[in-house]
């Protein structure tokens, strides 16, 4: 085999940091993806998105040849191990789409006997076992494993080296081989059955999503009572460690937490009542903000600015960002809406200075570090659900 490892989806937020780190450990990696434009950017030694710490490894693994970039699926056939990191979206009915199964069917001719096939993306529980049967049916003698990705976006380089790796497989040989591979990153390995590993991934992200919804619900309750949630939070948390698991409010979104909560709800036959409530609370936050503003202002005569359009602070990913949901609501209600983000280029985006100058109402959509020292005129109505400016927030 030409490569130790082929990573399908190797140019993405999950696959690329993994490709870089494995290559930095002496593993011969082929990062395979379909975007020729991204391949060109990468071949020039540039990262296509923010990944903290990547600059320490990326130029070197390209130079020493341990990381190969490809837009041809032939590299799948030339690899001892194949790791799959593709997006696993839900459809309009909030049901998981079988994209992993479809990918396996589409690329079946490239898989070879003796390979270890590792699923890394979120999958609907039972998918690992199902794919193992598909390979058997196609007479491909491959070991199938599920080793879930659990990193925080933007921090994969750090966390892949620190967090324990959960591994599972439909065969003992698959367990042994997955252990051997992931131990080059981190020797802290946890072995589960495939169904257990699949649920562990969903439970992890659903729990984070639920915890954010709890903070958002508390914020709404306090705000409706005319109280400042952040004063309450500080009092609760002061020298009281049992409250430390409660995050602070904000727009909880992004490409994983919502989606994985939906996956778990579908798997539970739509009986995941806590998850359903979390979806209603978190997805309802932009509407709540706009409705509260409408009680104070005639928005038809107000210009509103949104500071930050990424789905979380200090990164350049806008996927499923609730700032865009907020923008659409305000576009319908307000006289004019301005958007700004230091990491994202968007049509009609303005500088933060222009946004502050033109807007009557300013909403912190994403608490980027670049906004922390902005001077906001006290005559402007500031909506800071994140408490970026440390002044609390009562809408």
- String of helices and strands: EHEHHEHEHEHEHEHEHHHHHEHEHEE
Instruction: Tell me the number of helical segments per DSSP (H or I, 4 or more residues long).
Output: 15
Unreliable sequence segments: none
Query: Can you list the strand order of the major beta sheet?
Result: 3-2-1-4-5-6-7-8
- Global mean pLDDT: 96
CATH architecture of the largest domain: 3-Layer(aba) Sandwich
Shape: globular
Fraction of residues in helix: 25-40%
C-alpha Rg (nearest Å): 23 Å
What is the CATH homologous superfamily assignment of the largest domain? NAD(P)-binding Rossmann-like Domain
- How many structurally independent domains? 2
Structural class: alpha/beta
CATH class of the largest domain: Alpha Beta
- Largest sheet, strands/sense/barrel: 8 strands, mixed
> Per DSSP, what share of the residues sits in E-state strands of 2 or more residues?
5-15%
What name does CATH use for the topology of the largest domain? Rossmann fold
The N- to C-terminal Cα distance equals: 61 Å
Q: Total number of β-strand segments?
A: 12
